[in-house]
Amino acid sequence: MQTLAFIGFGEAGQAFADSVAQPARVTGFDLKDRAAAMAGLGVEAAPDRGAALAGAGAVWCLVTADRAEAAARECAPHLPPGTLWFDGNSCSPGTKGRAAAVIGAAGGRYVDVAIMAPVHPLRAAVPLLVAGPHAAAAEAALLGLGMKPTLVGETVGQASTIKMLRSVMIKGIEALTAECLLAARTAGVEGKVLASLQKSDPGFDWVQRSAYNLERMAAHGIRRAAEMREVAKTLTELGLPDRMAAATALWQDQLGALGVPMEDEGLEARADALLAALRG
């Protein structure tokens, strides 16, 4: 691999570019102005998709979940034959299947990738699940970049299904945390509620994890909401109700849209900041 390209250069793209074993040339394209971030990480900022993909042996597609299929369609005409397309976006199996068809028709090799933990602090060492007919080639390429892939199947959608269904629980707990503890703080009973939770589940640090959950929603709620809408699609594709996933998306969107900085690490301060913003 002589050239690695990034389509989308937000948190994940920057974390990977700063930690993988870089090939001779690394390029990037983002709809937002990320030129300074790219330059700081030794990435060539491309003026358009065609320039970013020219000569690429592999591409990391790391846009938002609602843009993943569109990104595949927009990039397909510029994709060199045989290029590995690592779709690391948090999408439903159906969305990934449609993106795979587009990339495959253009001569690319589509790879369903699920990023299974926050990219910080692990960066290139974050666990990845890989699936699809080109999974073995993808595994070799990712290992060459110093990354940590695990093959989970030869069908596109197998990796994303695991990620989507895990998110029902992880993002759902975040949303429940916000509903429970913001209400408890408003009522002045958060200490007693937390003590009761801790007694019921002593192996879980409810104060620390609740503070973390509020920060995640405040900082990344909009992106998480897009993912949860894909989770809802996954459930629908499986013929099951999507009630919890759909409700989680609404909470994530609402708290993320507030734009509240979570500078204080304390649970009470974070809850108060979110409550003040909710009250307008």
Topology:
Elements: E1 3-7, H1 11-17, E2 25-29, H2 35-40, E3 44-45, H3 49-53, E4 58-61, H4 68-75, E5 84-87, H5 93-105, E6 109-115, H6 119-122, E7 127-131, H7 135-144, E8 148-153, H8 158-187, H9 190-200, H10 206-237, H11 243-257, H12 267-278
Parallel strand pairs: 1-2, 1-4, 2-3, 4-5, 5-6, 7-8
Antiparallel strand pairs: 6-7
Helix pairs in contact: 4-5, 8-9, 8-10, 8-11, 8-12, 10-11, 10-12
N/C terminus separation: 52 Å
Low-pLDDT parts are none
Biggest pleated sheet: 8 strands, mixed
Instruction: Name the beta content range.
Output: 5-15%
Secondary-structure element sequence?
A: EHEHEHEHEHEHEHEHHHHH
Widest sheet, order of strands: 3-2-1-4-5-6-7-8
Structural class per helix/strand content?
alpha/beta
Q: Helical content, roughly? A: 40-55%
Instruction: Give average pLDDT, whole number.
Output: 96
Radius of gyration: 20 Å
How would the global form be characterised? globular
Q: What is the count of β-strands?
A: 8
Secondary structure tally, helices: 12
